[in-house]
Amino acid sequence: MPVAIVDGRVRVVTDLKDLTGTTPVELYRCLPPFLKFIIRKLMAFNTDTADHTLILGEYNTTTGSWSKDKLTVRVPAGQVIVLDERQLPADYVMTTDPASAILSWATKLGESATAPVRVKAEFEVA
Predict the structure, then answer these.
(1) Which of 38, 59, 68, 99 is the most exposed place for a label (fewest CB within 10 A)?
(2) CATH says 3-125 is which class?
(3) CA 27 to chain CA mean position, Å
(4) Peptide bond preceding 32: is omega within 30 degrees of 0, i.e. cis?
């Protein structure tokens, strides 16, 4: 995953991820601990012929369980959406104790898709 310094801040850009269902897909594992990973940009392209609900949130990789929703957005069929800091939640994910839980930013769909919804995100590390 590419990492860049923008205005003195570390930015991480995820690889392109394909979503086809309600199973969470990790966007970025929030390590090292005690660093805040703040979402700054989200891009989604719905290659399906049906609209889909994209859910962005916190995922516990240690237990394999969804922790909490941070954003829910509708992605129309065949459309691209790009959300920046103004449309995204002013929120972060942070792993505090890797011995008990490693958290990540993750995404999933609200329903199954016959063709993938492709997602890419950018995070600021603070």
Answers:
(1) 99
(2) mainly beta
(3) 5
(4) yes
DSSP string across 56-96? EEEEETTTTEEEEEEEEEEE-TT-EEEEETTTS-S-EE--S
Measured between its terminal Cα atoms, the distance across the chain in Å is 17
Domain ranges, ordered by start, for the chain: 3-125
DSSP three-state, residue 124: strand
Give the tens place of pLDDT for each residue, 76-98: 999 999 999 999 999 999 999 99
Q: What pTM was estimated for this model as a whole? A: 0.92
| Nearest-angstrom CA–CA distance, 69 and 99 | 23
pLDDT at site 53: 98
